[in-house]
Amino acid sequence: MVLSRFWLVIFISSIVFVVVSLFLGNSYTIDFILNGKKDDPILLSEKYIKQLPVFVKDSIAKAKDQTMIIDRDTLNPDTTYVYKNKTVKIYSGVQKADGLLPTCKNTLLDLIIPLIAYLAFFCGLMQLLIDSGASEKLARKLSPVFSKIFPTVPKNHESISYMTLNFAANFLGLDSAATPFGLKAMQSLQEINPDKDRASDAQIMFLCLHAAGLTLIPTSIIGYRAAENASNPADVMLPCIITSFIGTIAAFLIVGIKQKINFKSASLLVVLITLLAAITGLLFYVNHLDLIEKNFFTANLSGLMLVAIIAFTLIFSFLHEKKFTEKETTIFDSFVIGANNGLQTGVKIFPYVLGMLVAISFFRNSGLFEIISNTISFVFSNIGVSKQITDSLPVAMLRPFSSGGSRGFMIDSMKMFGPDSFTGRLSCIFQCSAETTFYVIAVYFGSINVKNTRYTLGTMLLVDLVCVVTAILVAGWFF
Questions:
Q1: Across the beta sheet with 67-70, what order do the strands follow?
Q2: In whole angstroms, what is the distance from residue 204 CA to residue 31 CA?
Q3: Phi, psi of 372 (to 5 degrees)
Q4: What is the distance between the alpha carbons of residues 461 and 395, in angstroms, rounded to a whole number?
């Protein structure tokens, strides 16, 4: 219900803002909002050539393509004059996101189709884990801990193994694997949900922990920093781990208090202490590596772990082939059945993803997001917050809405201020330490047709805020 109203507010407010801007003369056309593409120049006005200043007319006349560009901003063409069909079109700035129609197309081609491929493959592997009995054994071993975190989940339930794989994939920065495991966990939890239209306590806890995004190796962030020639691309790894770990603990405490979880459980304390010790030990190990060794370690650990998961699944299935025979199937046929289920899941979530991404595209291109972002930055700057922090806030603000959008702001901040600047590093920590909240809720609850998400959205946004504050403090401490 909350997500539905938020979606309507974004759409309606953006449409009203666009129409008002058009009639007030603040914008020349709204075609770019419908058909434009990201980074395309925005048409501001159209004039006859005689209406332009003399130096502009002379420059256009001398240019072979009858185009003049005035660069005040070294990163983007500030103003572009294009003479065509007896008029001069004047462009300035670039479009922040794809328009409505390109977003519809790209959601299918660039997001859903690859996602369906990932879902098909990893759901095929999960079917092997189920039929071979591996998921049952994993659930049985982890039940003592998960029963404390998810008291409504029956002992040894298969969802435990799916949640474990999801957390592990997130931990290693394997987003392509984490989503299929997470969707399978939500579907499994839905089977024991007494109210199918309403999110269960277990689903809310799982999704909030998932969204907190505890990450060990921020591979993509390191890659972007390397591409921008950072002196040490991996220097944000430790701040990212600390920030995401605190975000995960915050998510657990907030949801746990709401659900009256017993925090005094010995098994819970042991797990938390073990996890903290493991992270601390790993950090000490990585900290003693030189630059080349760090790059090698971060580049290969996640990949090796994914290969290990695939190898374990196949080998375990081969060693327990009798179980497939008892079910009158084969290992390959079992994989195909699981892959088919993954394909169906991908098709099912497409409308939810499409609706959310189109709304966000409209919101960004309308200019409303930029006004809100600039206003918040202005307020923070006037209460004494450092400009280095306010310059990176757009990444934090856009992150819950769009991973691609916030990534674009992150890259822009590194280009503008430098990858080794405080702003550039803080932008990277913001990008790494939170999840695309609205996208995650739409995809995960959409896959099981849950209409009432209860307090999920509010909790996840609060966790995002905790991550933002923590990121600022940690970045100030390290850099």
A1: 41-48, 87-94, 79-84, 67-70
A2: 40
A3: -65, -45
A4: 15
In this predicted structure, the answer to whether residue 178 has a pLDDT above a threshold of 50 is: yes
Residue 163 has pLDDT above 90, yes or no: no
| Reported pTM | 0.72
Confidence bin at 74 (pLDDT 50/70/90): very low
CB distance 178 to 433 below 8 Å: no
Displacement of CA 220 from its chain's centroid (Å): 12
* Burial 5-38, CB ≥16 within 10 A → b, else e: eebeebbeebeebbeebeeeeebbebebbeebeb
Q: How many CB atoms lie within 10 A of CB 253?
A: 14
Tell me the C-alpha to C-alpha distance, in Å, between residue 59 and each of 62, 156, 212: 5, 75, 54
DSSP 63-104: STTSEEEE-SSSSS-SEEEEEETTEEEEEEEE-SS--HHHHH
User: What span, in angstroms and rounded, lies between the C-alpha atoms of 309 and 315?
Assistant: 10
Amino acid at 2: V
What whole-number distance in Å separates Cα of residue 103 and Cα of residue 357?
A: 7
Torsion over CA: 101, 438, 340, 187 (sign): negative
- What is the Cα–Cα distance from 272 to 138, expressed in whole angstroms? 19
φ/ψ (deg, to 5) at 6:
-65, -40
Q: Nearest 5°: phi and psi at 47? A: -135, 160
The DSSP call for residue 391 is: T
Which tokens hold the place of 219? 């591979």
H helix and E strand count, the chain: 22, 4
Among 437, 432, 422, 435, which Cα is nearest to 392's?
422
- CA proximity to 99, closest of 28, 39, 10, 16: 39
Average pLDDT score over the chain = 80
Lowest pLDDT segment from 81-95, 230-244, 362-376: 81-95
The CA–CA distances, whole Å, from 392 to 66, 193, 284, 411, 436 equal 38, 41, 29, 11, 17
Exposed, middle or buried by CB within 10 Å (0-12, 13-18, 19+), for 299? middle
What are phi and psi for residue 197, nearest 5 degrees? -90, -5
